[in-house]
Design goal:
- 13% of the residues lie in helices and 48% in strands.
- It has 127 residues and is mainly β.
- The strands form three sheets. A five-stranded mixed β-sheet has the order 2-8-7-4-5, with no helix packed on it. Strands 1-3-6 form a three-stranded antiparallel β-sheet, with no helix packed on it. A two-stranded antiparallel ribbon has the order 9-10.
Length: 127
């Protein structure tokens, strides 16, 4: 029993002495406008973890949408200390391409044929 109490005390001391640290905080560097941005993080020995003031678990993932480039801040608090890590995500405008307006020509002349969208003209060597 004494050994178990001693082991428990050592674990408590080790936890209290261990420094708070961010093991991982990642997100894509560039996304298209209104595309989902997924953050992954892992923090050790913190009392409180948040991104943009939203309380989160010590390890996880979070998806948000952004319409402009910005910096996201992971904040960790505990043991009277504060630790932050930043990720900058560049948001670029969505590119919308209009469909090409192609009108195929149909010829009544038997020497011309339409194959796909390319026009071919048949000629003979006798000409």
């Amino acid at each position: 029993m004494r050994m178990l109490c001693l082991l428990a005390m050592l674990l408590i001391i080790a936890f209290c002495m261990a420094p708070m640290r961010v093991i991982e905080f990642t997100a894509p560097q560039r996304v298209e406008e209104n595309e989902e941005i997924t953050f992954y993080w892992q923090v050790e020995n913190a009392g409180k973890v948040s991104i943009d003031r939203e309380n989160l678990p010590h390890t996880g993932m979070l998806s948000v949408r952004a319409d402009k480039s910005r910096t996201f801040i992971l904040e960790c608090e505990g043991k009277g200390k504060k630790l932050t890590k930043e990720v900058v995500v560049e948001v670029y405008p969505k590119i919308v391409m209009d469909k090409p307006k192609i009108k195929p020509e149909v010829h009544k002349d038997e020497s011309k044929f339409l194959k796909g969208l390319v026009e071919y003209t048949l000629t003979s060597d006798d000409d």
